[in-house]
Specification:
InterPro entries: GPCR_Rhodpsn (IPR000276), GPCR_Rhodpsn_7TM (IPR017452), TAAR (IPR050569). It comes from Anguilla anguilla (European freshwater eel). By secondary structure, the chain is mainly alpha-helical. The chain is built from twelve helices and no strands.
Length: about 300
């Protein structure tokens, strides 16, 4: 470990422990409220309860997530555990969040037939789909999809080529770079996280569109029944809908936009560096110059015709 690691770990604990404690206590309070009220024991609330459990577990793992970037002296099993377990909890939370939005979307889009969909008829299967795939994907590094072998071979070669596999990784230590290959990270970001975020945005937008259409129908009904109070009631409904849109937009901007920006800024940096080098962009510049010259040679002929 580097000399700065203890100071970084103390800083991480000071920042994450209060937030983690607040998340755990808030989820426990809501979980106890749902468990103690028998009227809330139904399928929609069971999905929400699963989301609360995933959020609770994410709160427990929150202090360990920033420490993935630190280098620690751990053996193979411990290094896998401290990286795979938080990643599994985060993915399960994301899958549960998508399932809750999907179940609510079905209830609003098909209010008369939502109980016939598979998420209600096969609740154990639906619950399994939000916990088993995250566990399976997060466990892939434990089945060999990791960089530990290459790092161990490099360390063995540097140590004299005696062929013995080291229990640790010497100066480099345990970090997420040894557990998660780049392809694993790209697949998780672009194959799981971003599609989940876009699906949530799509379902939320569809629900808001349905709500807007229902608001218009209610306004028409009020105009035909209560002509004197129609303007006031319509203004109240429109204001309530506007508040809902603003709340949803604020949640998306505050929670998901920073993450999306961070992910794509890291991906755009190589492109920016490449565009800044004229040697890399000369072929594209010459091609554009050639196309522009051909287009200018065509124009006089077109005018003559």
């Amino acid at each position: 470990m580097t000399p700065d690691d203890p100071a970084q770990e103390r800083l991480i604990l000071c920042i994450t422990l209060p937030l983690s404690t607040a998340i755990i206590l808030a989820n426990l309070l809501i979980i106890l409220g749902i468990a103690s009220n028998r009227q809330l024991h139904n399928t929609p609330n069971y999905f929400f309860l699963s989301l609360l459990v995933a959020d609770l577990c994410t709160g427990v793992a929150l202090p360990f997530i920033p420490r993935m970037g630190l280098s620690r002296d751990l053996d193979f099993s411990a290094c896998l555990l401290v990286h795979i377990f938080p990643n599994f909890l985060f993915l399960s939370y994301l899958f549960n969040l998508v399932m809750v939005h999907y179940e609510r979307y079905l209830c609003i889009a098909s209010p008369l037939h939502h109980s016939q969909f598979w998420v209600h008829r096969c609740f154990p299967l639906a619950l399994l789909t939000v916990w088993a795939p995250p566990l399976l994907y997060a466990s892939l590094p434990a089945f060999g999809w990791n960089n530990w072998g290459s790092a161990s071979n490099a360390t063995s070669g540097a140590g004299g080529g005696n062929g013995s596999a080291p229990s640790g990784l010497g100066e480099e230590g345990c970090s997420y770079r040894l557990v998660f290959p780049n392809t694993f990270i790209y697949l998780e970001v672009y194959g799981l996280l971003l599609p989940a975020i876009l699906s949530i945005v799509g379902m939320t937008g569809r629900v808001l569109w349905i709500a807007r259409r229902q608001v218009r129908d209610l306004c028409k009904l009020r105009r035909s029944v209560e002509r004197a109070q129609a303007v006031t009631a319509e203004h109240r409904l429109n204001l309530r809908y506007a508040k809902c849109v603003a709340a949803v937009s604020l949640v998306f901007v505050a929670c998901w936009v920073p993450y999306i920006v961070y992910v794509h800024v890291m991906a755009i940096i190589p492109v920016v560096l490449g565009l800044a080098n004229r040697q890399y962009t000369d072929p594209a510049r010459r091609l554009l110059h050639t196309l522009r010259a051909r287009w200018r040679r065509r124009e006089p002929g077109d005018i003559a015709l």
